[in-house]
Structures are given as structure tokens and as C-alpha cells.
Amino acid sequence: MSIRNPAWLVGFALLVIPTHALAQESGRSRPLSTPAEQKEYLSFTAADEVVPYLTALVEATGGFELDTLITLNDGSSGVVSVPVARIPVLSEPGGPPVVRVLILGAQHGTERAGLESGLRIIRDLVDGELEPLRRTLDVRVIPMTNPLGVIRRTMEAAGGIDLSHDHVDLAAAENQAIWREYADWRPHLVLDLHEMGPTEYTIQIGVPTHPNVDADLVTFARYYMLPQVAHQLARADIRFHEYVAAWTEDAEETFYTPAPLEAGNARNAFALAGAVSFLVETSSSRDIMGLEERTERMYVATRAFLEAAALLAVDLTRVVERATVLPDTTLSVAARYTARTSGSKLAWVQLNERGLRVRTALSPWLPVVEVEAVLSTPAGWMIEGGEGELIASLRAHGFQVDRMNRPISRSVQAYPICPEVVADASIGELQVRRFRAGSWWIPADQPGGRLLFTIVEPWSQYGWFAGAAAIDCPEGTFPVYRVPA
Ligand SMILES: [Zn+2]
């Protein structure tokens, strides 16, 4: 942290030192300091310190509800849990609309800044400088979404599942639990906190990129919320850049900052479901060295998002209301980044191999998404019995799925597994088909319909059936049938 900025120093003195001094006077600084703070950041908060810390915080403040989303059995480490802190809004009648904010830490177990700053955010919302934000914000923090990864010092969860890319399949019990929380509560804003390797821009933030995300939601995220956050980061002397995609000379796309289009990436999945969502990364070598500094950076970024959400409450709640609705036009089933603005340059700063900052230019670069195929939105889908895993995933996302208790005949269209062209015209003719008992009806027009469409449409590039025709081109049709609008 630089001392060049006097305004920052004054803010620090006003906000932090008195609180700390008061806490020491009252003799309760220990239980309220996070485990890493107590150890002066000479070691990480251990996985088995998280619940005892939050329990002590509840007992000391009574200001929030501590719950267990799920317990996991880690052979060698015993039972570990994924705790959630539900910090209620303290709104008054006639005030601004309440904004619900969900914060996810440590989807990747080796990325600890989200866990450390998550604990600080909880503490400061219930007993610290962030408390005034609760007049507008209802906040839930899941600081350690991947406790097994934290314990084992692996990015992935059990079974090698990368939680951050599992938000379509929900193969991991951890993600099923997160989505249950999401579906019960429908937050307006979701922050997914991560860490990345050393880069010059020490906070990088990704907005949703999947083309089926509501365009107004992306505009709001990039041009209304992000500038507020960038401003606060600049005030704190933290170097920030939005994620960008760039091209190498052989025309391969590379992500200076990874911004995959995939629907299963957390920030895309939650945005498809209708929430304004961001991937927030702080860069470092992820060692214990520097933990305090990058925890502070992540804290400043998260606090800035909370302040922006409170400030923009009216617009944020309005944009989310519209983004959860399925449009009655078309949506994408295939898209890619393009280098359409070939020749354009973006000034960029990198660290060279000696750790020095060097100015470079990315060329060409652009996060422009070209939609390659669209389909009209249907009334819904009939799915044959036997697709239990898909149905379980849809239910875990909170979608309405109706089981047929007796055989039923419906007019539907079938999807060839290997169409010549992905387009409405390639879907089969309307035919009456008899579905046996145990089949499923899924109405398309329901909350989060954009995500539902992206998962269920069998030709969807990042959907449930993605890759079904990749190896050979089998004859036949998918077990999903379209009921046209
Ligand atoms: Zn990560």
C-alpha cells in the first residue's frame, strides 16, 4: 500500500484506527480479529478455523445468522462444512429498494484472498465500518465454498472438479448447495472472488460475456457499476483493469485475463440466471508472502462493489427484474470471440521475467462476441424419463421441472443429433409423440429462463448435451423435444 495518497491515509486513520483502539479498550479485539489478522498474516486462516471464528463472531455480535450449507467428508481430515453468513438488511420503510448480494470466496482452494477478505467483510458488516451499508444491502457471504481444496491446497474440489467451471453441470455438491441458496433467495448481485498469477494490474474484474446474458445487464455491469469500483480502487492506489482477450500472431485467442464464454463459468451462469455478476481477481504469486496486501486489495474491491450496489439500488434491482425474464425472440446456441477489429491496439503493462513493469500493446484485442447460431425460444421442452442427472441439475438450479405421472401425448419437434445447420429450420417437423410416465415437462418461461434455455437446448454449445456429437455423428435425435411457442 502506497503512502503517496494523503486522502487515503486520512480515510484509513478515521475508519480503522479508532475502531481498533476501541476494540482493544473493551478487551474484545481478539475474537473479532480474523484468524489471519490474529497471526498478523504470517499464516493463512485454516479451514478448521473458519466456523469457530464465525461462531465467536455471532456470539459476540448477534448480528447475523450462521448456517451450514453442506457438510463434506474428507477421508483424512474428517467432516468439513461450507458455512454461510446471512447478514440481514436493516432497512426502514420508505427507503430505497433492498439489494441482495451474494459473495463467494475460494471456489479455487489455493486462492485464499477471497476467504480472508470474506471474513473481514462479514465482521465489518456486523460490527464495523460497513454497517451503514445494511440500510440498503442484504448480504450473504460464503467465504469458503471449497473447504476440501483449502485443506488439500488444490484448486479443485473432490473428484478433480473445478467448481468455478461447474455452474451448468453442478456435478459438485458444493455448487448444488450454492445454487440452492441462490434459487431460494435470488440475489441481485453475485461476486465470485478469485486470485491469479502475478500481473501488473493487481485487481482484474470480468463482466459476463455469454451472449445470452441480457444486454442491459451487461451494460449496467460494465458502464454503471464497474466505474464506481474502478474509482474506489484508484483512490486506494490499486492498479485495475477489466479483463481483456487478445490474439497471438497465429490467430489463437489468448486470455491475458481469462474470460471464457462458457455458460458454466460462475459469472456467466449467475448472469444468465438474471443476477449482475462479476469475477473479481487479485493478482499475486499466491504465497503467504503478500497475503495481507492482497487481502486488503480484495477487501477494497468488494467494499467498493457493496457501496456501488447501495448507491445504484434503484437501477440495479430494476435491471435484474428484467434480466430474469426469457425473451420471446431468439437466443444464441453458438458464439465465439472474434478478432474483427484487427489492428486495434490496447496499451497494456506486463511484468517481465525480472519482475519489472514493461509497457506493451495487445494487438489485436477485443472482447467482442460473434453469435454464430440462434434458435427461437420455445414454450418448453419435454424430456424422456431416464435423464435423471439433467433433471437433478435443473432442480438444483431452482428450475421448475414437472414429472408426468401417467403417459401423455404431445405435439413436439425432435432435434437431430448431428444437424447440417444449427437453425430453427433444422429442428424436426411437429409430430405427436407419446411420452411414458416418468417423463418431464419443463416450461421455458420461468425465472432464470435464459440460463434454462442455454442448459437444455440440445445444440447449445455450452449446454448439458454439448459435445454429444463431437466424436462421430450418430443417427437419431436427442431425448429432449421442443414444444414450440
Ligand atoms: Zn480462481
Describe this structure in words.
α5 packs parallel to α6 and α9 runs antiparallel to α12. Helices cover 32% and strands 25% of the residues. The longest helix has 21 residues. The protein folds into 3 domains: 318 residues, Zn peptidases (Aminopeptidase, 3-Layer(aba) Sandwich), CATH 3.40.630.10; 42 residues, no CATH class; 110 residues, no CATH class. The N terminus is likely disordered. The protein starts with 5 loop residues before the first helix and ends with a strand. It is globular. The protein is built from 14 helices and 20 strands. It has an 8-stranded mixed β-sheet with strand order 1-2-4-3-5-10-6-7, sandwiched between helices. The chain has a 6-stranded antiparallel β-sheet with strand order 16-19-15-20-17-18, with no helix packed on it. By secondary structure, it is an alpha+beta fold. The site of zinc ion has 4 residues, from loops.
Show the helix and strand layout:
Elements: H1 6-15, H2 17-25, H3 29-32, H4 35-38, H5 47-61, E1 65-74, E2 78-87, E3 99-105, H6 113-127, E4 137-142, H7 147-152, H8 173-185, E5 189-196, E6 203-206, H9 215-235, E7 240-242, E8 245-247, E9 253-255, H10 266-273, E10 276-283, H11 291-311, H12 313-323, E11 330-337, E12 346-351, E13 357-362, E14 369-376, E15 380-383, H13 388-396, E16 402-403, E17 408-416, E18 431-435, E19 440-443, H14 449-456, E20 477-483
Parallel strand pairs: 3-4, 3-5, 5-10, 6-7
Antiparallel strand pairs: 1-2, 2-4, 6-10, 8-9, 11-14, 12-13, 15-19, 15-20, 16-19, 17-18, 17-20
This protein binds zinc ion.
Zinc ion binds next to loops.
